């Protein structure tokens, strides 16, 4: 029942995840953050089996930081998305594949927003907006209708608010609100939503 949403803006990317940590129909925690900052301009939002999400996210973060130390510069968003896709595809061929779906959000070297959706099979798609989990069933029509290529931060937050209202109306459980982060040229910031 996790919710992961992403919206690419003209010069930034918004990422939103549900605060509820659930097991079956029980809410175990109401302040869970399903995102992980990889470097100054990239973040992943991850959903799936609880052990796999933590292990895979930390594995990716460690490798992104190691590559940055070795090469002398931080990995770009596109490179990170390709690395994540490769690692998921490789784990699929092992005895214990990771059961995770994620969004890679960031800002590229041209200071344009970047958003990539990657599923547990290793399928990657760069998109202007994306959703994983039940959020995709309820919010994609809103995103299809209201998204524009030149969308501003204020309009992106309004669109995210519309998505949250729709989820509150139609979700069969309380997801305890959304954690929202913005990735722009200045870095990663948490937005009070």
TrEMBL record:
Q: Which InterPro entries match?
A: Ntn_hydrolases_N, Proteasome_bsu_CS, Proteasome_sua/b, Proteasome_suB-type
- Pfam families the record matches: Proteasome
Q: Where in the cell is it found?
A: Cytoplasm; Nucleus
Q: Which GO terms describe its cellular component?
A: cytoplasm; nucleus; proteasome core complex, beta-subunit complex
User: Which terms under GO biological process does the entry name?
Assistant: proteasomal ubiquitin-independent protein catabolic process; proteasome-mediated ubiquitin-dependent protein catabolic process
Q: Which domain of life is it from?
A: Eukaryota
Q: Per the UniProt record, which residue ranges are transmembrane?
A: none
Chief place of localization: cytoplasm
Q: Supply the alphabetized keyword list.
A: Cytoplasm, Nucleus, Proteasome
Free-text function comment from the UniProt entry: Component of the proteasome, a multicatalytic proteinase complex which is characterized by its ability to cleave peptides with Arg, Phe, Tyr, Leu, and Glu adjacent to the leaving group at neutral or slightly basic pH. The proteasome has an ATP-dependent proteolytic activity.
By sequence similarity, the record places it as follows: Belongs to the peptidase T1B family.
Q: How does it assemble?
A: The 26S proteasome consists of a 20S proteasome core and two 19S regulatory subunits. The 20S proteasome core is composed of 28 subunits that are arranged in four stacked rings, resulting in a barrel-shaped structure. The two end rings are each formed by seven alpha subunits, and the two central rings are each formed by seven beta subunits. The catalytic chamber with the active sites is on the inside of the barrel.
The protein here is known as: Proteasome subunit beta
Which organism does this record belong to?
Pichia kluyveri (Yeast)
Lineage at the top is: Eukaryota, Fungi, Dikarya, Ascomycota, Saccharomycotina
């Amino acid at each position: 029942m996790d919710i992961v949403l992403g919206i690419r803006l003209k010069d930034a990317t918004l990422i939103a995840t549900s605060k509820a940590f659930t097991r079956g129909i029980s809410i175990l925690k109401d302040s869970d953050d399903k995102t992980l900052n990889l470097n100054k301009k990239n973040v992943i939002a991850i959903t799936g089996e609880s052990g796999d999400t933590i292990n895979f996210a930390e594995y990716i973060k460690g490798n992104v930081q190691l590559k940055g130390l070795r090469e002398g510069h931080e990995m770009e968003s596109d490179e990170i998305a390709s690395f994540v896709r490769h690692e998921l595809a490789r784990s699929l061929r092992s005895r214990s594949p990771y059961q995770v779906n994620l969004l890679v959000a960031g800002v590229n070297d041209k200071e344009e927003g970047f958003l990539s959706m990657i599923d547990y099979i290793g399928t990657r798609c760069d998109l202007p907006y994306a959703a994983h989990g039940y959020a995709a069933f309820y919010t994609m029509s809103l995103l299809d209708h209201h998204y524009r290529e030149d969308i501003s931060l204020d309009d992106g937050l309004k669109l995210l608010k519309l998505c949250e209202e729709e989820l509150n109306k139609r979700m069969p459980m309380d997801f305890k609100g959304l954690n929202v982060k913005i990735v722009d040229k200045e870095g990663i910031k948490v937005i009070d939503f």
